[in-house]
Amino acid sequence: MNIPPVSIAAVKQALIEQYQHPRLRHRASMLWGTRGVGKSSIVRQVAAHFDAPLVDLRLTTIEPVDIRGAIYADDIRQQTVWFPPEFLPTPDQPEGLLFLDELTAADQRLQISAYSLILDRRVGNYRLPDGWQVIAAGNAAFHGAVSHDMGTALADRMFHFNVQSVIDAFLDYALANALAPEVMAYLKVRPDKLDDTQSQLANDYLIGASPRGWEDVSNVLQSGLSESGKRLFVQGRIGAANAAEFFGVLREIRAGTDVIALLAAPMGPETAALLPKTLDGLYGMIYALLAAATDAARMTRALEIVDQLPDTDTREPLPIRESQTLAMELIFQRALERGLEGAVLESPVYQRYAEQRAADDQATG
Questions:
Q1: I need a labelling partner for 271 at 20 to 30 A (CA). Which of 92, 119, 297, 338 fits?
Q2: Where does residue 154 rank: exposed (0-12), middle (13-18), buried (19+ CB within 10 A)?
């Protein structure tokens, strides 16, 4: 595919800007990407951004007549006419988003009707209102999904985006949606495990890891299932090899950090004694602190713990300074989301960090 890969965040911003431009809004956009990357999610987010109506059509679940509508004999005109389906936008809905999901996997007869909406913004006697933007999504054959070729005539009528799984974008999503800290810590250390579609295809595996799969793993970890039950469900979602590695790291994360004890410990030697000694444990602690920092007091205490990271007694070198920067920024981001930024800004620890950042920026600027 001769389209450069872009992050899901970049595609979302591009679609927002396209919707704001009346002329560009008339040209359809096509989102290419592997399963679980979040194509449908960003379309919903764009609609929510503008508080605009969204018509979401999953083309693999409908028939060609569902788009074209029903044919009716008009005795007066002595003609057959088409009644458009009720789910297509009507003139009293002047603006919105029409999302044609799984376009490349749809039956080719259905694609003809969908192509009419994309190429001509009409199908039969139905015409799409001028203020509506068409967005389509699908998989290419190399993504390992059912896919029919898209002709050059259609491809030439669309903007195309090659949506890629980017670990930073996924971690931002994970934080915003309170995914399990263990999943975030694992993927921070092993970003290559976010999406192993190519390995899955090469080995002819039925299932593998994907962004959607890790969200399901998070739900399993946060459930009340037994440990054996959790292992079975995780294996059945991302595959045996991925699950074995994940649970191996999970044991290390959980053994390396007791966040509740850290939050309760006084500053100084008692805190230092509880700090993690491995990379997995370090990131496990950071994301667990984020999950636990639900009020001003815990946020202030989390900053103090992060400030003591250089006191870690470990034989292996750890990225302490990088981890401190990551933790400080994430804690401040979480504080903004919860309306607790005052607690962070008033913290002597954060003030020292901000002053050091400013000095570093001035030195390098």
A1: 338
A2: middle
Mean pLDDT of 163-169: 78
Confidence of residue 142 (pLDDT cuts 50, 70, 90): very low
Structure tokens at 78: 């002595």
Q: Which residue has the tokens 């919707």?
A: 19
CA dihedral 320, 323, 325, 330 (to 10 degrees): -160
Instruction: Name the residue with tokens 């985006």.
Output: 161
Q: Between 65 and 174, name the one with better pLDDT.
A: 174
DSSP assignment of 216-265: HHHHHHTSS--HHHHHHHHHHHH-HHHHHHHHHHHHHHHHH--HHHHHHS
Amino acid at 335: A
- CA-to-CA distance for 56 and 27, rounded, in angstroms? 18
Angle at 171 (CA atoms; ends 169, 175), nearest 5 degrees: 120
pLDDT in tens, 257-305: 788 888 999 999 999 988 988 888 888 899 988 888 888 999 999 999 9
**Measured between alpha carbons, how far is 15 from 330 in angstroms, rounded to an integer?**
27
CA distance 315 to 303: 24
pLDDT category at 122 given cuts 50, 70, 90 is: confident
pLDDT at 64: 66
What does the alpha-carbon distance between residue 234 and residue 186 come to, in Å, rounded to a whole number?
14
Residue with tokens 């996997």: 105
Phi then psi for residue 223, to 5 deg, are -85, 175
Residues 73-113 have pLDDT tens digits of 777 877 776 666 778 888 888 899 999 888 877 777 777 77
Q: What share of the chain is helix, strand, coil (3-state, %, to 5)?
A: 60, 15, 30
Are 43 and 99 within 8 A, CB to CB?
yes
3-state secondary structure of 49: helix
E strands of 126-207, at which residues?
Answer: 126-127, 131-138, 158-164
